[in-house]
Automatic annotation (TrEMBL):
It is found in: Membrane. This is ATP-binding cassette sub-family G member 1-like. Its main location: membrane. Belongs to the ABC transporter superfamily. ABCG family. Eye pigment precursor importer (TC 3.A.1.204) subfamily. It comes from Nicrophorus vespilloides. The keyword Signal does not apply. It comes from the Eukaryota. InterPro entries: AAA+_ATPase (IPR003593), ABC2_TM (IPR013525), ABC_transporter-like_ATP-bd (IPR003439), ABC_transporter-like_CS (IPR017871), ABCG_transporters (IPR050352), P-loop_NTPase (IPR027417). Residues 11-249 form the ABC transporter domain. It is a multi-pass membrane protein. The chain crosses the membrane at residues 333-353, 365-386, 407-431, 443-464, 476-494, 500-521, 556-578.
Amino acid sequence: MNGSSSRGVTIDFSNLTVSVKTGQTKTKEIIHGIGGTFASGSLIGILGPSGAGKSTLLNALSGFNTTGMKGDIIINGKRNNMQWYRKRCSYIPQDNDLHHLLTVEENMKFAADLKLGETVDKKTKNKMINSILDTYSLSEIKDTPTSKISGGQKKRLSVALELISDPMVMFLDEPTTGLDSFTSSQCIENLKELANKGKTVVCTIHQPSATIFKQFDHVYILSEGRCLYQGGTENMLKFLEEIGMPCNLFHNPADFVLELANGEYGSDKIDMMIKYSENGGNRSYMDKYIEDVTNGVYQPLSGDLHFQSNTYELKTLFRREFVKLTRNLSLTYLRICATIINGFMISSIYWNLGENASKIWFNYNLVLCIVINLVMCGIMLTVIVFPMELGILQKEHFNRYFRLRSYYIAITILDLPISIFSTTVSNYIILYFTAQPMEMNRVLMVLSFGIMVGLIAQSIGLLLGSCLNLRNGVFVGSYVHMPLMLLSGFGLLVKDVPSYFNIIGYISYMRYAVSGMNVAIYGYNRKKLECPDDEFCYYTTGASFLKEMEIKDHSFWTDFSCMIAIYFGLRIATYFAITKRLPK
Ligand SMILES: Nc1ncnc2c1ncn2[C@@H]1O[C@H](COP(=O)(O)OP(=O)(O)OP(=O)(O)O)[C@@H](O)[C@H]1O
């Protein structure tokens, strides 16, 4: 197993402060200069009332979120050791970010493939997976989709997944939340076994029962970002006695200390505890730390953990995302059906008017309609779906399953065939039933512009989804498209738009698509259009219409290249936007 070691990791921290931004210039300090030591081979519980800063501390120590953090973190007695340390940590968030479309075993297999790579053969991986599944009593449900397993099983699977890479330090955010007392106790028992094997296991916990409390080797009590006590669980009673607040024999010590932390016995007691514990700096209530130091079990700092090769990572992610895609065919069918149904609907409205010179303006509106349809379908899909995937991406990336670029390339390429197929079929239907010229080169040009509009709209959705939450993403998505749509020639000729808007026009991919499609339909020496005897035709040739629109000289390659440039620009910007959302 990667990075396995009989020796562990001891984390010392001092003067740790975490602040968050609460406005443009304002910050708020959440953790106030605390210290502490989490020794190797211990199960450590971070306790405190709601809002005390438990998750913030867990995130800071694990490196999952270090924004606004200051202070010293010393690993195995050495500073400047964070890179080595972070590679050996694993973080399990509270909300069980699992692949719900995969079964329990598939989740394990893909995790093993990504974490262990090609160097470990399939047989060894399967043996390891079966042994972990057995230990965590998950073997019987290994073929069940993760979406159908119980909350406790999800928690166990989350731990099981991380054990594949045998991390030396495990951070768990509220692993017992939502579990009944028996399952909670079992969950903590499992964690205790891991600690007994030499791992440093740190978890936040709400109101533990007396039985659960006793299982911890070490507790860290927080109140409003300050440390009230840190040390051995047994020693806590001694500490309370020493400060004149003995815990009644029949009182659950965890309940008592939380009542103290909540201020139920007065704020002076909180101040006193902070003073005696030296805001976490007092190590005299720790047995394990003293043992570690005197026995010199600090591990020499060596070794490195590497990612798998790019091609292997990409191949595995392709496989995983493809399996997920096949399990969620309803979304794929919905996407294809929706665009095709829209295609028929648009065709029935603009039926057979492509040859009619008197209906040239209707035909122009048809092109706008095609573009708007593709924009709406493309943007909504990604702006909604991506934020749902962000949690699991953050967890997997932090826990070193893969590099972001492999994931990004895999999801980009995997979506291409569906996008291209649905847009192409829908637009072909429209072109055919609205009697547009069906010459191969014209059709190909219109279809190419259609594909690019869909892909760019999806990229905008992805960019917004990676920068904003769902509500803001949907709002900004519609808002951004208003000027882009107006400048594409919607109800107003581009030439009549005030010149100071021209700059926006250059980035309006809809404008390139509308011009490009019209040139493909009316340009390239198209023969005279039919003018019915009883109708008035202002334009009888496509060329005169294009001249009036001032797009006669547009070339396919210029418009298409601009769209390609916009597409790649957006994809690159999105990559960096996602990077910003990932733990550093
Ligand atoms: N980005 C933020 N902006 C403003 N306040 C924040 C931010 N993040 C956290 N806080 C505040 O910091 C405090 C600590 O939050 P944290 O989530 O760490 O608490 P907790 O002890 O884990 O709480 P709970 O047990 O309820 O999950 C809370 O008062 C919270 O409101």
